Amino acid sequence: MGRTQVIVEWLGRTGYSETLNRQRALHKRKSEDRGLPDVVLVTEHDHVITLGRAGNRENLFSRIGPDGTPVEVVSTERGGDVTYHGPGQLMVYPILDLKTSGLSVSGLVTGLEETGIRFLAEYGLSGGRSSVGRGVFIEDRKVQFIGVAVKKYVSLHGLSLNLDPDLRFFSLMNPCGLRGLKVTSLREELGARCPTMEEASTIMCRVVREFFSNLPAGGRVSACEDRG
After folding, report:
1. Of the listed 176, 194, 205, 224, which one is catalytic?
2. What are the backbone angles phi and psi of residue 9, rounded to the nearest 5°?
């Protein structure tokens, strides 16, 4: 069954905690009224490091950014370990009713990977999955990260995709708790052909809207685990 009530909102640049509070408010309303449309928030954040439910603080080496400025660290209810968010990174947060759609948590994670793969294809990049962990890779280099939470069958949190962030921030940690993980971005892969945030956000909103409005029958994408 296709989904027809999906609202995709581009928020521009936002603070992480501000958007987290917005997600939680939308989640509460959706949990209380299943008739409300599903919402997907798309944004870009100020510098922040987040720890998921499986977060191990030993995987975070420093809270001081490359410019010597302290970076906020926030513990959240999403799956996964430690990661970085900041300017030049696209964030996608689906607040979806999984129960009414028949979409499993595993299907949601795979669907978020699929949106990343489709987004990369818009720029001639071949993204794929890896046995290293969930997310999207370009060969052996990770470009998209995923961490979700589901409460009362409604999702929150989602994906981050590296457009043109300062990749030095990932050296402050073992991203996703993985030692030696190679991290890349569209800027690294495309150079001067890397799109602007304005262009990329427009494309991402379209890809997200098309995907979540036209899920396969029963909402099942494929089986996988909830991990960051």
Report:
1. 176
2. -120, 125
